[in-house]
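From: lab user (bench 3)
To: helpdesk
Subject: output format question, protein + erythose-4-phosphate

Hello, I'm new to running complex predictions and I'm not sure whether the block I got back is the full result or only part of it. Here's what I submitted:
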Amino acid sequence: MQVFGPVVRLTDIAPSPTTFSANPRDQTPMKIFIDSADLKEIKDAAAMGVIDGVTTNPSLVAKTGKPFEQVIREIVEVVDGPVSAEVIATDYEGIVREGKHLAAIHPNIVVKVPLIAEGIRAVKTFSQEGIRTNVTLCFSAPQALLAAKAGATYISPFIGRIDDVGGDGIELIGQIVQIYNNYGYETEVLAASIRHPVHFVRCAQLGADVGTLPYKVILQLLDHPLTDIGLAKFLEDAKKIPK
Ligand code: E4P
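Helpdesk reply: Thanks, we reran it on our side. This is the complete output you should expect:
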């Protein structure tokens, strides 16, 4: 008499929308970008050797008190990786003109474009011309799908800002990773508006390709009181070791 049913392999079980794992499109390690325009923060983070790129936005650049292009030129000298620089124009021609100007500043510049109809049209043009883009201000899965169809290099879903209005930013990351995996889109999921280490860990679990973190959150990733207590004890005990 057969007591048990047929063996069901774990791989036969369809993942639930929020529990599937790493991105089969790209098995390279998750990248960490710093979300900042502050040169000192960027230098300090880069000195740790774990920063793969930089994202900026007009609000972050405004805080520096320096001209936009100067800030971007300084950043590309510090970090050898993708540096997102955002266009201010909101019409197709303006976005394309500004984006081409920014892309010509340095090969590492990624043109950051807002997720609006004119922006998506410009992203298509940029992708046909080999200019890399980061589509920003993404708050929904259909927006992310359109950005991928237009050929975006990165999509930036804003987790914290969704949480701020009572939504679930992490759920959106899961939806986008799943949709991109379903169809093999090469657009990288760049989790943005990350406010604390748990956001970052959840993004890593869900297979986001990149997390962009404020400097404060990068430092928080290192923090653990037991590390501090343990180190203090080791250093104290080390003094008792005979010379
Ligand atoms: C991403 O590219 C944005 O610059 C950023 O992550 C926005 O974060 P905030 O919502 O904390 O301003």
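A quick orientation on your result: Residues 35, 55, 57, 136, 156, 158, 160-161, 192-193, 212 surround erythose-4-phosphate (CB under 6 Å). Let us know if anything else is unclear.
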